[in-house]
Specification:
- This protein is an alpha/beta fold and 292 residues long.
- The protein is 37% helix and 20% strand.
- Strand 7 and strand 8 form a beta hairpin.
- The strands form two sheets. It has an eight-stranded mixed sheet, sandwiched between helices. The chain has a two-stranded antiparallel sheet with strand order 7-8.
- The chain has helices at 46-57, 72-89, 102-112, 130-134, 142-150, 176-184, 186-193, 211-217, 222-226, 247-256, 277-291, and strands at residues 2-8, 13-19, 29-34, 60-64, 94-100, 166-170, 198-202, 205-209, 234-239, 261-266.
- It contains eleven helices and ten strands.
Length: 292
């Protein structure tokens, strides 16, 4: 069952979709998906299709839209707001994060950072349709989830952390500077460092990127953060011919992390994994089933 939700995020309203798993056991696990720069939760239809397939048998999936072209620090805050919502309304036993491209950077920062979540519910942030969106397909109440959680004290909901039980990095960077030099162009990147806004106008839309966007992302060292991921499963998927986030960045991420980890290069594919999306999706589905 698919349900929409909305909540008040740290810089504006957030909209998303919950794909409730069709099995009761599957609803104990939640996968939250974070999209890339100038992208959307639909991912050109590929992300929504993957969410539908995963939710059929494996786990519940939550997709949402970041505020368009917002700074990385805001994206991290928005992802945490969604995780607060998941924690309080769905109370999952296990939680996984999947980050595509820039969303992967957001997931690394969130998963490997040290900031603890708020102790109570996200007061005043849920819209009127949140309660309906969070209701499980069986008709069980949120109170039913809470009662079940008491029997699982080590569940993700009960832990005082944003660290997930597992992490999927889909075309995710290791170096934000290297990646955004490629995305914006060397000249535009340098102009942004000098305080000039950058205008991007193409088939993806017309966006003005403030200089603060670039200076903000340079405050984060993804490589150093990933060294903190030394246990728990990690899945890395990357296009063999990705010219936006270059393939060696995936290898660097793999080498830095510890734990149970996998790296899959999609043969002849690009940054969006459009050619081998179904193959990549099957790997994600298998991996989630093994670790849920």
């Amino acid at each position: 069952m698919k349900r929409k939700f909305s909540l008040a995020g740290p810089v504006g309203g957030l909209q998303g979709v919950i794909h409730e798993c069709e099995s009761e056991n599957g609803r104990r696990t939640v996968l939250v998906m974070a999209h890339g720069f100038r992208g959307s939760m639909d991912g050109g239809g590929r992300a929504s299709l993957l969410a539908e397939e995963i939710s059929e048998t494996v786990c519940t999936v939550v997709r949402f839209n970041f505020t368009r072209c917002t700074m990385l620090r805001n994206q991290v805050a928005e992802l945490k707001a969604v995780l607060d919502f998941v924690r309080e309304t769905m109370r999952p036993e296990k939680l996984f994060l999947l980050g595509r491209s820039f969303g992967g950077a957001t997931c690394i920062i969130t998963a490997c950072g040290k900031e603890a979540p708020k102790g109570g519910p996200v007061s005043g942030q849920h819209s009127a349709d949140v309660a309906e969106a969070a209701s499980p397909a069986t008709g069980d109440s949120v109170a039913g989830y809470a009662a079940a959680e008491q029997a699982r004290p080590e569940s993700w909901h009960a832990r005082n952390t944003y660290r997930p039980d597992g992490l999927v990095l889909w075309s995710a960077p290791n170096s934000l500077k290297k990646t955004f030099v490629q995305v914006l162009g060397e000249e535009s990147f340098q102009r942004a460092l000098q305080g000039e806004a950058i205008v991007l106008s193409d088939e993806r839309g017309h966006d003005e990127i403030p200089a603060s966007f670039v200076t903000d992302l340079l405050q984060y060292d993804l490589a150093a953060l990933l060294q903190g991921w030394q246990d728990g499963p990690l899945l890395i998927l990357h296009g063999e011919k990705d010219c936006i986030v270059t393939p060696e960045q995936a290898q660097a991420n793999y080498d830095l992390a510890g734990g149970d980890k996998e790296l899959h290069y999609m043969k002849d594919d690009d940054h969006h994994l459009a050619l081998r999306c179904r193959e990549a999706g099957a790997i994600v589905k298998r991996w989630l089933a093994e670790h849920s």
